[in-house]
Amino acid sequence: MALRAEPPDGGWGWMVVLAAFFQSALVFGVLRSFGVFFVEFVAVFEEPAARVSWIASIGIAVQQFGSPVGSALSTKFGPRPVVMTGGILAALGMLLASFATSLTQLYLSIGLLSGSGWALTFTPTLACLSRYFSRRRSLATGLALTGVGLSSFAFAPLFQLLLSHYAWRGALLLVSALSLHLVACGALLRPLSLAEDPATGGPRAQVTSLLQHGPFLRYTVALTLINTGYFIPYVHLVAHLQDLSWDPLPAAFLLSVAAMSDLVGRVASGWLGDTIPGPVARLLMLWTTLTGISLALFPVARAPTALVVLAVVYGFTSGALTPVAFSVLPELVGTGRIYCALGLVQMVESIGGLLGAPLSGYLRDVTGNYTASFVVAGAFLLAGSGVLITLPHFFCVSAPTSRPQDLVKEALDTKVPLPLEGLGED
């Protein structure tokens, strides 16, 4: 590999964006659309809905908690073999699930095996993308993550069509074949060697230094708070509207409106993140604040027009914060440590995602409505915005937008010494 002083900001990087687009679609698009199989599994296995719902929950948990493993392996061996292996595991899990005769087998095949494959694909791919871009990193990330929204619209009717023609076993076989395309996405991830890489050490040295890095730890806390309230509308908005005497179909349509606005927000925010001078953390704080306010206002709005406006605002701002959230991390720790940093962040922030929906449901059971649920969700995002203000260079007018090579020296100051044998092994 040729040694580069800084990210090329283009070139083969656009092929990495293409790979990340399809990878995000094949991971989170499948996860978001897997509810199509939910009713089928309840009927076939004659199990309660709560037990069936654990299939997707286990898959999501394994994907998020396993992210540090994918990051460490990518740091040592490069992202290409790791993501290709993840694609094989994801496809194999779906293949074995088509022969399942009990829910336990689905837990192990889809939840554990496919979830492990997803853990080896998402984080290494986004980390590889971050290494290829500096000035246009936010735009590249925004374009890559639009695959999640577009595939959510496409896969739900596609999976329903497969179910009606081939039953659930045949449909899972075809989803397995679809997931195997993750191998092709991994093959497009050409490794890139940057000048700052030798100074960052191996996986163990990087993790140790990150755990001693104050800005990184504060940023992880901020994203965990944001993640706690972020997904509440996707889980409880339809139920809240039905409490307001909305019919199920218009309520679901309002969620689709938010999803369309989400797509626009991702691309627009990516472009703004690379255009507006100053640290990207300020833009992230703006989107997070607006998302928190829109969540807190949902219980206040009663008229259909007001609810539609809030859904559009929430969709745009919640989508807009996603690409810049990934762009802030290289500014804090440098692109040399982006694999390990992104893996650790994904693992810790998943705690907020797992606790947010149950907390919202508990508040609904206690109060009898979703007012407290949405207000508390908005409060979590506003608290995350407050933590973002403490990041370095937040109030600096002349700070560059995305120049991780200028900040890596500051990030490396916190690296703790390790035995020479350990560094050699890493």
Automatic annotation (TrEMBL):
Print the keywords alphabetically.
Cell membrane, Golgi apparatus, Membrane, Symport, Transmembrane, Transmembrane helix, Transport
| Record's keyword annotation contains Repeat | no
The UniProt entry lists membrane topology as: Multi-pass membrane protein
Q: What broad class describes the main subcellular location of this protein?
A: membrane
Instruction: Report whether Transmembrane shows up as a keyword of the record.
Output: yes
A Pfam family it matches = MFS_1
Where the record annotates domain Major facilitator superfamily (MFS) profile, the positions are 13-402
* GO CC entries: Golgi membrane; plasma membrane
The family classification in the record reads: Belongs to the major facilitator superfamily. Monocarboxylate porter (TC 2.A.1.13) family.
| Name of the protein in question | Monocarboxylate transporter 13
* UniProt source species: Tupaia chinensis
